[in-house]
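Request:
You are asked to prepare a plain-text protein record giving the amino acid sequence and the backbone structure tokens, at your earliest convenience.
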Amino acid sequence: AQAQMLGVLSDVSGLLAACRDANQGRDADLDQHAEQVEPHLRLLSGLPRPDMWPQLRPGALDLVLDRLVATCEVVVVDCGHGVDAGAGSGPGRHHSTIQVLARADEIVVVGRAEPLGLTRLVRALHDLAAVAPGRSPRVLVNMARRSLGWSDREVDTTVARLTGITPEAHL
């Protein structure tokens, strides 16, 4: 999704290409697979379809993450929507997400300030607690606006009551 939002339209997933290099024993050349978006911002695009997640071997993903951490000042991984707490044992999106969460220095969870978005946010925070126990995510509420009829304080109170975590900011 980040690639599309940033106008990087490519048929090839940068992440999948880097993992394939790692699978073949080649050091992932991130300059070859990451798109330069801004002078100090590169994007390693994700997978375009959910059915492609099993193609990422956990070992290869670890090698790519190691390379990113070694060569980049800051690494941000957008894991998309919530994670299924019961799906972490086999290959796939949720296993990869759990793998990334386990390595993360910081976890940021973003939810929308509308009924469905808040429901998903609460569910995601509960799922996160199951797969990353003891981690304290930063929670941000996106797309907050007065026309929803809720104040930021009401949203914060609801999220805190249901999850024990108070959002840090409203965007």
About this structure: Helices lie at 2-5, 14-23, 30-33, 58-71, 93-103, 115-131, 152-163. The chain has a mean pLDDT of 84. The longest helix spans residues 115-131. The chain is about 40% helix and 10% strand.
